[in-house]
């Protein structure tokens, strides 16, 4: 699998994970705060900055029925009317251009999750390098076709999708023109728990769909994300805010700047640690080999002495014969004798 390229960055097992900071609704309807989030994400080392592009009318209906309220007691929005929630969380469309520009100026790749065709049109006008399909939209086949038709790489979260639904979504994207796809293992609960994350699915998806695979992570902390890198995740997406105490629709399961900085650092370390299948000392270990155990003379022995088990010990450092030779040297004659602290080498048994 050759991987792919998003903007200026390679996304593959040969590159450190692509870390995306998800702003979502954490701007709290302040453009100044939104710009500060972009700057904090860049300072923390994130490679991508993600928005969401929708209006409440492109997501739901302004209908005050129970079905249009969040019923789950495990979500931070319990009881909220969907239309009001999305109106509070939406990123105003006129903010997209300055936010994209600020991200690019700071060396990040801006991207967004569109929720309808008009959102895709806006993002195309902004020159988006990549698109994100949200878990709740991976069954929206017309949207998938519209996004795929741009020819840009697509990140798609897999949350809630059965294997059959996921297969249909992937085929829909590919048949509509998507050549570069990254599936993001995702658990669509907010927050998610580690035991419900099932990241062993990551290598299975990679093999099954023949594409790059990453993680859209709603758990607290960085442990799940770091572990996912060991399983082949090449993209990590986490919600991001300036300070959870500031509140906001997504703040309770979002990372703060120091946590994002740790995520960037530790996922890169995890990737570096993967290396390749290797046995024997690395180049960096060669010097350490001299401190392994080996055979040493432990008392002065005169010329002609026959070595016994009391004359030789297996100790550090490692300048003598390997410990495996212990039984072989017992009973040998020392032609020139030896002193306490001499390494047992072949030279001890050669005549002068």
Automatic annotation (TrEMBL):
One of its GO terms (biological process) is carbohydrate biosynthetic process. It comes from the Bacteria. GO terms for molecular function: N-acylneuraminate-9-phosphate synthase activity. InterPro entries: AFP_Neu5c_C_sf (IPR036732), Aldolase_TIM (IPR013785), PseI-like (IPR051690), PseI/NeuA/B-like_N (IPR013132), Pseudaminic_synth_PseI (IPR020030), SAF (IPR013974), SAF_AFP_Neu5Ac (IPR006190), SAF_PseI/NeuA/NeuB (IPR057736). Residues 294-352 form the AFP-like domain. PANTHER family: N-ACETYLNEURAMINATE SYNTHASE, PSEUDAMINIC ACID SYNTHASE. This is N-acetylneuraminate synthase. It comes from Rhodospira trueperi.
């Amino acid at each position: 699998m050759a991987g792919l390229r998003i903007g200026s960055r390679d996304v593959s097992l040969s590159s450190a994970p692509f870390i995306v900071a998800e702003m979502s609704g954490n701007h709290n309807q302040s453009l100044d705060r939104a710009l500060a989030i972009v700057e904090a994400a860049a300072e923390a080392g994130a490679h991508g900055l993600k928005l969401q592009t929708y209006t409440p009318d492109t997501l739901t209906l302004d209908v005050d029925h129970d079905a249009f309220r969040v019923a789950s007691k495990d979500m931070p929005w319990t009881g909220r009317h969907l239309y009001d929630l999305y109106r509070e969380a939406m990123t105003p469309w006129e903010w997209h251009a300055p936010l994209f520009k600020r991200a690019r100026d700071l060396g990040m790749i801006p991207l967004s999750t569109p929720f309808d065709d008009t959102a895709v049109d806006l993002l195309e006008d902004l020159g988006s390098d990549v698109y994100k399909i949200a878990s709740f939209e991976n069954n929206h086949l017309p949207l998938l076709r519209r996004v795929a038709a741009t020819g840009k790489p697509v990140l798609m979260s897999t949350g809630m999708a059965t294997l059959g639904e996921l297969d249909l979504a992937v085929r829909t994207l590919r048949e509509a023109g998507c050549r570069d796809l990254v599936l993001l293992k995702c658990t669509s609960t907010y927050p998610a728990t580690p035991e419900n994350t099932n990241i062993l699915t990551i290598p299975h998806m990679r093999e099954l769909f023949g594409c790059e695979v990453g993680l859209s992570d709603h758990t607290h902390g960085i442990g799940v994300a770091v572990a996912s890198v060991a399983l082949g995740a090449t993209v990590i997406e986490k919600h991001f805010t300036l300070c959870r105490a500031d509140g906001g629709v997504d703040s309770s399961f979002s990372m703060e700047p120091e946590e994002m900085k740790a995520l960037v650092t530790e996922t890169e370390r995890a990737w570096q640690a993967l290396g390749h299948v290797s046995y024997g000392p690395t180049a960096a270990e060669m010097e350490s080999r001299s401190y392994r155990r080996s055979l040493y003379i432990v008392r002065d022995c005169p010329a002609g002495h026959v070595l016994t088990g009391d004359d030789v010990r297996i100790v550090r450092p490692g300048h003598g014969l390997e410990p495996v030779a212990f039984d072989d040297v017992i009973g040998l004659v020392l032609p020139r004798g030896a002193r306490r602290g001499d390494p047992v080498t072949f030279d001890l048994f050669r005549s002068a």
